[in-house]
Amino acid sequence: MSTSTLERTASTSVPVLDVLAARWSPRAFDPSSPIDEDKLMAALEAARWAPSASNTQPWRFVVARRGTDLHAAIEGALMGFNREWAGAAQVLIAAFAEEADADGNPHPWAQYDLGQAVAHLSVQAHADGLFVHQMGGVERDALQALPGVEDRFTPVSVIALGELGDATALSEKLQQREVAPRVRRPLAETVIASA
């Protein structure tokens, strides 16, 4: 049941870019291969160039490579079944929204713009053959305590990033989730009004 042999491309209702249809969020990461630094930097560069309101760029990342104390600290902040699989990812990235600037001026759009930056990161990573899985089940206080994190940075999520692993290494419950059909609600239910 290797995920590398599964067809995971979405069956979209209208054509979209191949990289978007093919992108998915695995839980099986290769626990032994190192991260390709060029691909990691390309993903972070894509995030850097995401659009933001007034060009405020209200996102910050703590990037931790597997085998480091920082990776272990971020893994320790994960909650629930995320702890079962995310540690195998080559990189864990804690994502923060800068909800106010250094002068205390609020950025009410910060989490929206962070989402755009992470989307750019995800698409670039997938285009380069890496995989991303975002997690909201995190202990935010533990992320807030990571090195370099200022009080005005709000912890939002953790991103597992790396090369695809073998789903058979996961628990039976997670294996079932890994190979379950990809589904989304119909487009007509997503667009609530259109003129």
TrEMBL record:
InterPro entries (UniProt xref): Nitroreductase, Nitroreductase-like
An example molecular function term from Gene Ontology annotations: oxidoreductase activity
Name by which UniProt lists this protein: Nitroreductase family protein
Segments forming domain Nitroreductase: 21-79
Pfam families assigned: Nitroreductase
Gene3D superfamilies, per the entry: NADH Oxidase
Keywords noted in UniProt: Oxidoreductase
Protein family (similarity comment): Belongs to the nitroreductase family.
SUPFAM superfamilies: FMN-dependent nitroreductase-like
Domain of life: Bacteria
